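Many groups now describe folds with learned vocabularies. In that spirit, our science desk offers one protein's residues alongside their backbone shape tokens.
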Amino acid sequence: MKVIITKDNIEGGTKAFEIIKQGMENGARVLGLATGSSPIPMYDDMCDSDLDFSNMTSINLDEYYGLKPDNDQSYHYFMQKHLFDKKPFKNSYIPNGMAKDIDEEVDRYNEIIANNPIDIQILGIGRNGHIAFNEPGTPFGSLTHKVNLTESTIKANSRFFDNEDEVPRQAICMGIKSIMQSKKIVLLAFGDSKQDAIKALVEGPVTEEVPASILQDHPDVTIICDKEAAAKLSDKYKN
């Protein structure tokens, strides 16, 4: 596990972009993508670059269940706004939050991932160590699955909606085993609210109570975090 500490999220986004660029130069063709505030600077660099993604495939981690793609809180909308409108991909896969049968959609998404092995997976991390919507207690062997969102996640996400009642209660999410099958993983974390999560991810025990801790067992992981998020790491990671 490699830890890169940056002065801020802008520099961190550039570091992540450089990894993607190098990966593409070395033959990467499938990117696993994430939503949230952490990857936005990386997406800005991707949009401002001269890289051509028209022969690339993207696979997103998750989507709320029950939100239409044009809802401004859906992850479809987020990806269009921050990346795809400026840099379209050959194929872009995001779970269908309006699928009539959620179990069929889960099966469909697992097949997409199986048929398009992910070369570089981008991740964020929650304060409790969750990755995507894989909350504490999610089995490490999980594939794409239906998630009943926890009250803490619903409350945290309510700031993006007019009121808490509008926050979806379910999501479709790539599983931890699916994430771990990616050839390379890049996790982004910025701000002092992520200190405990980064400490547990890098130096804590591998436990399903901290979903991100499983990344210690992956052969190619890069953690990109700013000084605030890295504040509780041992000195060996700061030099």
In short: The chain is about 30% helix and 20% strand. Strands lie at 2-6, 30-33, 57-60, 62-64, 91-93, 120-123, 145-148, 170-173, 184-189, 221-226. The mean pLDDT is 95.
